[in-house]
Every structure is written in C-alpha cells, then in structure tokens.
Amino acid sequence: MMKILYPYANVMGIFFPVGKIDDGGTCQFATAKCLKECCAISHKKIGPSLVFRKKAFSFFVENNFITIAGKILEELKEDKCNVLAWFASGDCPITYKDKFVNIIKVLQDNGVVQTGITRSWNLWMDLLKIQNDQTRFLLTEESMDQVNVRNQSGGMYSIPDYKNGVIDIVISESHEVKKQYGCGGGYYTDHVLKGKIIKDDKYLDLNCQKCYDKKIGCFTKLLKN
User: Fold this and answer.
1) Rounded distance, CA 147 to CA 145, Å?
2) Angstrom distance (rounded) from CA 88 to CA 15
3) Which strand ranges, in their side-by-side order, compose the sheet holding 6-8?
4) Which of 38, 74, 134, 225 is the most buried (most CB within 10 A)?
5) What mean pLDDT comes out for the span 60-73?
6) Residue 6 in contact with residue 47, Cβ under 8 Å?
7) DSSP-derived secondary structure letter, 31
C-alpha cells in the first residue's frame, strides 16, 4: 500500500522532491544558495528515496484536499503518531497553496500537531492566520535583515546555518524580534543554550515530539496565543 508519510525527527514527515520547478523539484522560492547548500541535499541519510518523494508529491497533486487529509490521518493513526512535520524536504509551489492550506485546516480540526518550514510568503501568511499552539509554520529567510523587512507580529522564521546543516528560529512579538532559538534536540541544547555546536552523536537528533511536549523550538509559547 502506497505511503505518503515517512519517519522524521521522531514524528512523521512529508517529503517532496528538492530543486527548481523546471528540474522536477518543488522549491519554487528557494535562493541559489539554498538550492546549493540545503541540508535536505547535503544530509543524504535523512529521508526517503527520490522515487518516494516524487510519488508522494504526485499524490498531493492528483487528489483533492479531503482525500489527502484522510490519507494523512490514516497513516498517522497506523504509526500511532499525532505530530506531522511538513516540508521535511521540498516546499509548496504557489499553484497548490490553497489546497495545502485546506489540508492543514482539516488536520488542525482533527487535533493533529503540525509544524513546517516554507519559503512561500503567501502560504505562510495564510497559515499565520490559523496558527495556534498546535500549528506552527516558519518562513525561511536568509538573514535577520530580511526578517526585519518582512516582520509580522507572532511570526516565526528560520534562518539557515548552512555550515552546520541546521536552522536558527526567530520569533517576532508585537512586531519586535525578541526571541531566538534553535531547531531540534541536540542542536537546541548545544548551539543555542551553550553558544556553540558540539558535534557528538546527538548533533542532529531532531525530535519534534520532544519540542512540542516541552514547548520549545517551533512550539515555544507565543504571547498572542
């Protein structure tokens, strides 16, 4: 039976092909640097095969949002998981923005915890309107300067640390950027709290479930919530 979810960060993830649209990828809004140095490309061991990613994306393209949401709920139940990580690789092309928003709303109504990272400003702005303690999406920007330009109160942003293959999480409150965290278990502890990265066995031990339970990382408590 075909699967569209794949284990990621101790939860289940959605993986789409990486790369430009013209090359068969889904990263319509990626920068040249991102396409060259993205950790979804450099960390080969993370995620399923390209064939899996292509089939998963095709399922999203070919089916309506109700069918897709139902399939996701079915797989989450089978895997006894209630946390979904969107765009563990790839992104949402603008053509499918409304469909993806509708899927996320259905899952939200069914109590699924969701997080994800996107470069689609339009998708992110729509999701910012429905954001709550269980639904968190980050907009990727290359620098703090870009975050400040497109600063939205309550918005969450990811700034890639290409050298180390991780991200910094920036949170805006009342249109003032004032909180910064890291992504994932080992990275959060070592890079942010200790001020440096210690590359031991736990370096990329990402755990979305742990962050949700502890309300850290993407699931840090926001003032507006």
Assistant:
1) 5
2) 5
3) 6-8, 11-15, 83-89, 113-118, 135-140, 156-161, 166-173, 176-182
4) 38
5) 98
6) yes
7) -
Q: What are phi and psi of 81, to 5 degrees?
A: -130, 145
Residue 56 domain flag = yes
> Is 219 inside a domain boundary?
no
Which residue range(s) make up the domain with 123? 6-142+150-183
What is the crossing angle of helices 65-78 and 97-109, to 10°? 50
Which residues, including other chains, have CB under 8 Å from residue 46's CB and lie 6 or more apart? 8, 39, 40, 88, 89, 204
Q: Is residue 215 part of a domain?
A: no
- Residue 42 confidence (pLDDT) above 70: no
Average confidence (pLDDT) over 84-100: 97
Number of domains in the chain: 1
pLDDT tens digits for 170-221?
Answer: 898 867 777 777 785 566 666 666 666 666 666 667 889 988 998 888 998 8
Cβ atoms < 10 Å from Cβ of 8:
20
β-bridge pairing 6-8 and 11-15: antiparallel
CB contact at 8 A, 11 and 84: yes
Asked if 28 and 99 count as a contact pair (C-beta separation under 8 A), the reply is no
CB 87 within 8 A of CB 116: yes
Chain-centre distance for alpha carbon 45: 18
- pTM summary value: 0.91
Is residue 216 domain-resident?
A: no
Instruction: Look at residue 22 and tell me whether its pLDDT is greater than 60.
Output: yes
Instruction: Choose the weakest-confidence range: 10-14, 34-38, 116-120.
Output: 34-38
